[in-house]
């Protein structure tokens, strides 16, 4: 949409997500922005639990963010929506959806800790999503920080397109603008580097995307930055420029300049890349160009679900197209029955601010709608029911915990409460283990599951029993094989009959599952083939040799028999299941284990002990790199099963100074002795079929 035609109310909206590692200071940074904009009298304190975004009692008690939180303010005629996100890797399921709702990702880096894995991960994710990106180096007032070295490291790790928009000055008590002020011919000094050189690099980077400005720059030697808005937005959109700002949320240094950069340089809803909406069913949906036009059909995306004890299920959404009005009607995805927008509000931390309408770019919430779900698209025209956003690539939850109520008869109540908590977090998964009748919850790490238990105890109001974390093993096959089963049951009157011949073939690791109907001549009538697939899938879910889900195989059903009277769906479900079990047992089955990328930050003198310990856990070290002075980062791969309670071991090696992060890398076969132990411990629950 051209700038001339863009609604002036929409052009005055900025939506940003504050992302980055834990302890980077994102929560205090948001408070500092709110205070500078006059929304709150002064920035809050983590220690006192008085910040706007860390409003949950558990967050206040633990002293760090556990879920994403929203705030907004108006300053200089611009309405800014900001999403504060947790930085611990276990809570990336809260951080990644924030990228769905923002036009700009502000990646916050702690000047003391340097570049951490979460900063790299989220900057990359924001780039893949096509967002404008801004790096903010916080805590520049901290003692013994090497800011010139950190800026050089940022450019080395993230790319030469990372250029300082401002530089620390007067011993980090303030910052010097390198874009606008430097062009006025003022003699501006910074603590390091040259403001003039930084200005020149910025202008050259921006004009490169527009040939007309390149010619002017080569002729005149400079271009007024106020004329560079369009090429600047293009450079941000294309990832050709990633500005770097310096600040201290604690002292306020650079906060005004950061706010000015958000208002004047970061894109409005029409200036960034359009959200990756898709239209249509099947494997090849077509891109759908959402327009930030209040007069168009409504398209809004639910990027956060909150189970509010008073308001019921609350959906937090970004409006991408159209106008959502209080009292209006919306459809949720494919639903045929509309919902009424009875309550419409913006979130200011824990506060709900009632509004009458929300425009493209606005973040708002509706409550008391049980049909809402994470990733749902809301629309006001039924012909838009097949529009959806390209799904995010979330990490796979691999830490498992078995949970049961201490009091018998409470199983359903516990399941309902767990389901509400899982609704809020796309990186939690819940399942019922059929063979043991246990409730299993999978998360991204020990901290993730510990928080789940804390919240469960608050909502459930009862005692729960837990068993040690389970590893999310998988089963697969390593050779083709065939299976056959005839299900025949006669007990007076009509019986049951179904016969299935199938073949299993291994697929590449990570390929998933394929089901192929190769039956010819109607030996298995078409109406029974879904029943065969259902039986096959039930065997896949429960496993064959060790009780873990089967993955990475193709199942080809090529023959069978039916009976005109006795054949029923249940007969083919059973036949499909048992034929698959028979085939897998002959297909050289393997148990797979999750292999994780591990990144360990520790003092230099501990690195030898850490690498030796990692090797003893079947791990491999891929390399080391510098962190803050005196520390190194060890990168490697290790089986997740070998890293149970690893923090305790790391504390012993580093005297409590080490920390680590895990990210699932891939699955590979367990050693033979481990497979023998897992198979031996498994008691097949489906032998009585």
TrEMBL record:
It comes from the Bacteria. Catalyzes the GTP-dependent ribosomal translocation step during translation elongation. During this step, the ribosome changes from the pre-translocational (PRE) to the post-translocational (POST) state as the newly formed A-site-bound peptidyl-tRNA and P-site-bound deacylated tRNA move to the P and E sites, respectively. Catalyzes the coordinated movement of the two tRNA molecules, the mRNA and conformational changes in the ribosome. SMART domains: EFG_C (SM00838), EFG_IV (SM00889). This is Elongation factor G. Pfam families: EF-G_D2, EFG_C, EFG_III, EFG_IV, GTP_EFTU. Transmembrane segments: none annotated. NCBIfam families: PRK12740.1-5, PRK13351.1-1. Residues 269-289 are annotated as: Disordered. Residues 11-270 form the Tr-type G domain. One of its GO terms (molecular function) is translation elongation factor activity. Keywords: Elongation factor, GTP-binding, Nucleotide-binding, Protein biosynthesis. It comes from Pelomonas aquatica.
């Amino acid at each position: 949409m051209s700038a001339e035609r863009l609604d002036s109310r929409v052009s005055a909206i900025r939506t940003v997500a504050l992302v980055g590692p834990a302890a980077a200071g994102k929560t205090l940074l948001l408070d500092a922005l709110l205070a500078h904009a006059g929304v709150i009298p002064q920035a809050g304190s983590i220690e006192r639990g008085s910040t706007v975004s860390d409003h949950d009692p558990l967050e206040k008690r633990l002293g760090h963010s556990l879920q994403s939180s929203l705030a907004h303010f108006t300053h200089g005629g611009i309405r800014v929506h900001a999403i504060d996100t947790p930085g611990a890797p276990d809570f990336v399921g809260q951080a990644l959806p924030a990228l769905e709702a923002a036009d700009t990702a502000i990646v916050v880096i702690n000047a003391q800790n340097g570049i951490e894995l979460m900063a790299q991960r989220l900057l990359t994710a924001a780039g893949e999503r096509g967002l404008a990106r801004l790096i903010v180096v916080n805590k520049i007032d901290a003692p013994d920080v090497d800011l010139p070295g950190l800026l050089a490291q940022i450019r080395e790790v993230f790319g030469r397109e990372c250029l300082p928009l401002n530089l620390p000055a007067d011993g980090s008590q303030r910052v010097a603008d390198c874009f606008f002020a430097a062009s006025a011919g003022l003699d501006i000094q910074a603590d390091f580097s040259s403001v003039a050189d930084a200005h020149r690099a910025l202008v050259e980077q921006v004009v490169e995307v527009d040939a007309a400005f390149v010619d002017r720059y080569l002729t005149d030697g400079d271009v007024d930055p106020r004329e560079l808005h369009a090429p600047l937005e293009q450079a941000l959109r294309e990832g050709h420029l990633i500005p770097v700002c310096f600040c201290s949320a604690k002292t306020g240094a650079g906060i005004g300049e950061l706010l000015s950069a958000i208002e004047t340089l970061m894109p409005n809803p029409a200036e960034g890349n359009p959200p990756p909406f898709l239209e249509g069913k099947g494997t090849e949906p077509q891109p759908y160009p959402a327009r930030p036009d209040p007069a168009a059909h409504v398209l809004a995306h639910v990027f956060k679900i909150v189970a509010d004890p008073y308001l019921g299920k609350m959906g937090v959404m970004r409006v991408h197209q159209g106008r959502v009005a209080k009292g209006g009607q919306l459809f949720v995805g494919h639903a045929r029955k509309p919902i009424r927008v009875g309550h419409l509000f913006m979130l200011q931390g824990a506060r709900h601010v009632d509004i009458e309408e929300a425009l493209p770019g606005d973040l708002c919430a509706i409550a008391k709608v049980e049909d809402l779900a994470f990733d749902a698209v809301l629309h006001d025209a039924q012909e838009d029911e097949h529009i959806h956003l390209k799904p995010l690539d979330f990490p796979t939850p691999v830490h498992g915990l078995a949970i049961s109520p201490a009091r018998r008869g409470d199983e359903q109540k516990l399941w309902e409460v767990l389901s509400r908590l899982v609704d809020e977090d796309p990186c939690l998964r819940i399942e019922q283990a059929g063979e043991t009748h246990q409730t299993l919850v999978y998360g991204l790490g020990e901290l993730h599951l510990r928080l789940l238990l804390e919240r469960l105890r608050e909502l459930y109001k009862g005692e729960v029993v837990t068993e040690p974390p389970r590893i999310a093993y998988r089963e697969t096959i390593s050779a083709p094989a065939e299976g056959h089963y005839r299900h025949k049951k006669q007990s007076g009157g009509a019986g049951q009959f179904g016969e299935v011949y199938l073949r299993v073939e291994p697929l590449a690791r990570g390929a998933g599952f394929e089901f192929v109907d190769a039956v010819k001549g109607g030996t298995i009538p078409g109406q029974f083939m879904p029943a065969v697939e259902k039986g096959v899938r039930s065997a896949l879910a429960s496993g064959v040799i060790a009780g873990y889900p089967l993955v990475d195989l193709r199942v080809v059903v090529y023959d069978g028999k039916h009976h005109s009277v006795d054949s029923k769906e249940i007969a083919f479900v059973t036949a499909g299941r048992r034929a698959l079990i028979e085939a897998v047992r002959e297909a050289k089955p393997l148990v797979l284990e999750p292999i994780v990328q591990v990144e360990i930050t520790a003092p230099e003198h501990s690195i030898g002990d850490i690498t030796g310990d990692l090797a003893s856990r079947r791990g491999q070290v891929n390399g080391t790199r510098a962190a803050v002075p005196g520390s190194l980062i060890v990168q490697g791969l290790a089986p997740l099963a070998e890293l149970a309670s690893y923090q305790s071991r790391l504390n012993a090696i580093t005297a409590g100074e080490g920390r680590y992060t895990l990210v699932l890398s891939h699955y590979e076969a367990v050693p033979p002795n481990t497979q023998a132990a897992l198979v031996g411990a498994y008691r097949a629950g489906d032998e009585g079929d």
